[in-house]
Amino acid sequence: MSIHDTARPADLPSGPDELHTIGPDRQTFDALARWVPEYGDLFCVQSRDRRDPSFVVSNPGYIRQILLTNHENYAKGVGFERVKMLLGNGIIVSDGEEWRRQRTMMQPGFSRANIARLSEPMRAMNLALREPWSRLADGGEVLDITTAMSRLGLEVILRSIFSSDLDRIIGREGGNPFAFLAEDATRDLQTAVRFRNLARVILGVVGERRQSGERPFDFLSLLMDARDRKTGAGMTDKELLDEINTLIIAGHETSAGTLNWAWYLLGRHPDVEARLLAELAERTPGDAFSFDQLMDLNYAACVLKETLRLYPPVWLFSRRALKEDRLGDFPVPAGAHIFIAPYFLHRRPELWPDPERFDPDRFDEARNPPVDRYAFIPFSAGARRCIGEYFSFVEMQMHLALLAPRFALRFAPGMPAPAVELEPAVNLRTRHNIHLTIRHRSAA
Ligand code: HEM
Q: Which residue's CA is the closest to the ligand 1 atom numbered 17?
């Protein structure tokens, strides 16, 4: 088939007649909002500038096949070029043996014991937010929660990577050279160049640690000490740099975005908020609760999962079929582009009754049957599932446990809670920052 011959071969699944190039953009978001309800589990989209057909997959069984049982047949797909500009060949973009080696070396760093240790600096960072938030609350002022969460998310990942060296970096550079990442949501070429220029800063710390042999407890030390099981070799500087960059980018926007949406949803659902506060009062009283107590927060976890169902930061991701496969009755030709859109999967009424309703109890297994694992994939699934999932729950639960009992964040009094406009890019964001009135809980 030539590039311009877009007639649909008979054995491909049906789909829209119009041509469309699927990507992480507004046009695709709007088109999928129409097509997923209309065509359901699997449909095919032809495009003027892609020779191979694009399959949009929203059936949990097929998703399981692509991400788990036959994942070796599916490499990372289109859309990752832009990510590559930022992240070189870090594990989010690499494939095959290279990915497997790096993932195997990195995985132990994300153990429960390590994350439990990293949760202590997270506690300190959240406690430090109380003073500025208190000052705003004293005057009943408005908080730009989007920016606040972005800054917190960035600080959490940077301190988890560099620990006390972050202060050295800030001192030496006359400010935090990474700070622009929390302020500037655009990921254009200019940002990419600026970000890549931070290599000097990161490699500077790596060099100092190699020379001194110092290994403070943080992700950087864990990665520097990681060894390939077969060869005993550690990571080269270039590999370390790409993986550190990957953790910074993959690790800050996603959890920050989720907390942004969580505050927004709590502001609109006082009933949910009341149950959350009751759980926090019972299970994580005071500021010195243990890690086990924190991870015993069942309702808080349900609130976060329901937030991720409605607003998955990674709303669309792609794969490329290496060899031919079959999804149900349909052959998948080698080279086919595969698109999985958690945002639309998570809103299929066949899988999620009353899908637009914010209802954390969906995830409470004591009240409802467990949800299909492949109908809920904010972290993807299978071998390439997010490495930071547990870390992000620790980070987000810590934030809610320390801030939610103190502060009430509400939409301006007397105003209906506004519907928020979405900005679907590589991550799903709010088009405009969310501003909420902040009050002391005692006075709320
Ligand atoms: C709410 C928070 C988060 C969400 C929703 C999220 C989502 C995802 C998704 C959907 C993928 C898979 C993409 C694909 O298969 O194409 C992924 C991969 C990844 N995430 Fe996350 N993520 C979150 C937090 C984090 C954090 C905190 C870190 C680091 C500390 C992190 C690091 C990574 C890495 C390194 C990968 C690549 C894994 C691999 O390919 O082996 N993520 N994430």
A: 386
